[in-house]
Design brief:
By secondary structure, the protein is mainly alpha-helical. It has helices at about 5-35, 40-65. The chain has 2 helices and no strands.
Amino acid sequence: MADRRDMHTEGAEDRAKGKAKEAEGKIRSKVADAVDDESEQLKGYGQQIKGKVQQGIGKAKQNLDPNPGRDDI
């Protein structure tokens, strides 16, 4: 049986991944803006939104964890 990490740890991981996704979206939007590619610019904005949502989910997981730092076994 696989060990499960606690929600606090999963939340921190989601927040980090979301932050990276948001940053990648910002870069994508800026590059697309520089080359005047509206389609790629919109994809970059969408990626930023996905990153912010993932960060929110991570924060919620961390806030809901009754025993932060204690892994479920």
